[in-house]
Amino acid sequence: MQLPEQTKAALYYLLQTAAKDNVTIAGFAFSENPPSVTNFGNCTDCGEIKLYELLCEMAADKRRAGQVLTETVPRPA
């Protein structure tokens, strides 16, 4: 199953905006209802597991050095 259209549109907008700003995006969106998993990104290797392994490794190194910015977006009320 696919993601809801509104979420899909938001991801497309994010990817297009990021590409214009020379920001690379790679990730997964998943939902229980409807059941779905979507891999997305604006880089050619966004579907490669090695990319995520390297990103996790890099994030762990940066986190230990206190160089990771975590922003939690609140859910709508």
In words, what does this structure look like?
With 77 residues, the protein is an alpha+beta fold. The protein has one domain. The protein has helices at residues 5-20, 49-64; strands at 26-31, 36-41. A two-stranded antiparallel sheet has the order 1-2. A hairpin with a 4-residue loop joins strand 1 (26-31) and strand 2. The longest helix is centred in the first third of the chain and has 16 residues, at 5-20. 0% of the residues are buried.
Any chance you could write out the topology, listing elements then pairs?
Elements: H1 5-20, E1 26-31, E2 36-41, H2 49-64
Antiparallel strand pairs: 1-2
Question: Would you summarize the structure shown here?
Answer:
The chain has helices spanning 5-20, 49-64; strands spanning 26-31, 36-41.
Low-confidence runs (pLDDT<50, min 5 residues)? none
Domain count: 1
**Count the strands?**
2
Q: Level of helix content?
A: 40-55%
* Gap between N and C termini: 26 Å
Arithmetic mean of pLDDT: 91
Radius of gyration (CA) equals 14 Å
Shape: globular
Percent in strands: 15-25%
Class of secondary structure makeup: alpha+beta
Helix run count: 2
Biggest sheet architecture: 2 strands, antiparallel
- Please trace the helix and strand order, writing H or E for each element: HEEH
Strand order of the largest sheet: 1-2
